[in-house]
Design goal:
By secondary structure, the chain is mainly α. Helices cover 60% and strands 0% of the residues. It has one domain (10-83). It has helices at 10-46, 51-72. Helix 1 (10-46) packs antiparallel against helix 2. The longest helix is centred in the first third of the chain and has 37 residues, at 10-46. It starts with 9 loop residues before the first helix and ends in a 27-residue tail after the last helix.
Length: 99
């Protein structure tokens, strides 16, 4: 079954298109530009010098994630932030799509 979206207002259509373009730009341009940095980091880790780029990679990846969330219109609500330990990192993974 093919779903067809009909936009009665051309301005509304243009807003959706602009948001889509912004999302894909925010998603892929940093990945393409960051790939050489990732390769350099991998090489530096082999020689024990990985710490030289860790701050730069953390800054770039966290700002990229914030930008992607903003372009998708997502909001984040955090409850219980005081329960997360400062001395180690954590990874949260949703079990299903609505998580």
């Amino acid at each position: 079954m093919k779903i067809v979206y009909i936009f009665n207002n051309l301005l509304l259509y243009n807003l959706f298109m602009a948001r889509t373009i912004l999302f894909y730009t925010a998603m892929w341009v940093p990945i393409v530009l960051g790939s050489p940095v990732a390769l350099i980091y991998i090489i530096l880790v082999k020689f024990g010098l990985g710490r030289l780029l860790e701050g730069f990679i953390h800054f770039g990846s966290s700002n990229w994630a914030k930008m992607v969330l903003k372009t998708t219109g997502s909001t984040i609500k955090v409850d219980g932030l005081e329960k997360i330990p400062d001395e180690k990192g954590l990874c949260f993974d949703g079990n299903h799509q609505s998580a």
